[in-house]
Design goal:
This protein has helices at 3-18, 23-33, 68-76, 83-87, 105-108, 112-118, 153-191, 211-219, 236-252, 305-312, 316-326, 331-338, 342-355, 361-372; strands at residues 38-45, 50-52, 62-64, 96-98, 125-134, 137-145, 196-200, 206-209, 224-225, 231-232, 256-260, 269-275, 290-295. By secondary structure, the protein is α+β, with helices and mostly antiparallel strands. This is DNA-binding CsgD family transcriptional regulator.
């Protein structure tokens, strides 16, 4: 392999670390380099001899040049009769070995592992490296070749040079996956907020919009984002004022609030600007510097009444009443909606107050708002422009 080919292979290794969909492409390139009839980057549990070879585009667990049904058969059965596994269990992380050093060839050709799984695919030799190890789990790279293609000393040396890069690439991929998982969790939590949230970078451009804010923007009544991701109100004065609040939060760290009036509602949106005090370094990219919270008084909380049943022991009927009161219904409105008498509702309310240890309706609403308000999922009602 010349220097250009080697550099290309190293580049492919690290490209796959940050773009998981490229792992299969890298493994194909690696297979070409070593004239492999099949290459697998798989996960082995040496405690049970179970192996995972199939994955999706987001994982480095990949198999190329092997029939999918054959891969399934390996996972289901043949990994447990793989005579190479037991003898390579103690292979240190970052080291490699060829299969002829794992099991005597004269005995190997008599095994079920060879005759029923390897031989039908014209596999005989393998070069194996352990890239990552944790307890009994190992990320294992296996390169298979035919009986007429034993691995030379030069090829083994080349593979040894690649293994440290492969290990680093897998570790980078693992770290990226962990960060991505945290970010996805954070996004899910932000999307469950019962208020709109827009995050702006230091240039005043939106870099994140949660589901409730998206609904308000689609409604295009009181607040929107222009094509550059900058905020707009329904009139020029409020637009200038809101952008000034965001600018003050970016430059001075000041938070503030204002109302955004709407044409389709007599009640304005409440816009609350909070500085996040982030100062990104050059070339790092856009990061949130300001949070804009948008509260719409016309959109009630959509609290899961089962939470109240679990926390306070409310009956299903009592929990539904508590949620209705939280969403702004009166006792009379609720009785009419449910088709029951006011007296029945008042009896239920008495039980709710007793079980929640509150003494009046306003105290109950305060309890539910402070206890569950920020955990409630936004209402599922689709907002449309009138």
């Amino acid at each position: 392999m010349n220097k250009s080919q080697y550099d290309s292979l190293i580049e492919a290794i690290y490209d796959a670390a940050v773009m998981p969909e490229l792992w299969s492409i890298f493994l194909e390139q690696l297979s070409d380099t070593f004239k492999s009839r099949g290459t697998a980057l798989h996960l082995v549990d040496f405690a049970s001899l179970n192996s995972t070879c199939r994955s999706d585009e987001s994982s480095f667990i990949q198999t190329v040049r092997t029939d999918p049904e054959t891969v399934v058969s390996y996972e289901r059965y043949y990994s447990k009769v793989n005579v190479w596994l037991e003898n390579s269990k103690n292979l240190p992380e970052g080291e490699l070995i060829t299969s002829d050093r794992l099991f005597p060839v004269q005995e190997f050709v008599k095994t079920e592992w060879y005759n029923d799984w390897l031989k039908p695919q014209d596999y005989f030799h393998a070069m194996i490296g352990h890239l990552l190890k944790q307890d009994t789990l190992t990320v294992r790279l296996s390169i298979f070749r035919s009986k007429q293609q034993p691995f030379s000393a030069d090829e083994t040396a080349l593979f040894a040079r690649l293994v440290p890069h492969l290990r680093r690439s897998c570790m980078i991929h693992k770290k990226f996956s962990e960060v991505k998982s945290v970010l996805n969790t954070d996004t899910e939590l932000l999307n469950r907020l019962p208020v709109g949230l827009v995050l702006f970078d230091k240039c005043g451009q939106a870099v994140f919009v949660n589901h409730r804010a998206e609904s308000l923007i689609r409604c295009s009544d009181g607040f929107r984002l222009n094509t550059s991701g900058r905020c707009q109100a329904d009139n020029a004065n409020e637009t200038r004022a809101l952008r000034q609040l965001i600018s003050n939060a970016i430059e001075l760290g000041h938070g503030n609030a204002m109302n955004l009036h709407r044409g389709n509602s007599s009640r304005p949106l409440s816009a609350i600007v909070v500085s996040l005090q982030n100062q990104p370094l050059p070339f790092i990219g856009s990061v949130p510097s300001v949070a804009l919270f948008l509260c719409d008084p016309d959109l009630p909380l959509n609290l899961d009444d089962s939470l109240l049943t679990q926390c306070y022991g409310l009956s299903p009927a009592e929990a539904k009443l508590a949620v209705a009161l939280l969403r702004g219904q009166t006792v009379s409105d609720y009785a009419q909606t449910r088709g029951i008498s006011n007296n029945t509702v008042k009896t239920q309310l008495k039980q709710v107050l007793e079980k929640t240890q509150t003494h009046r309706q306003s105290e109950l609403i305060q309890l539910l708002t402070t206890g569950f308000g920020m955990l409630a999922a936004p209402a599922k009602t689709v907002i449309t422009k009138i």
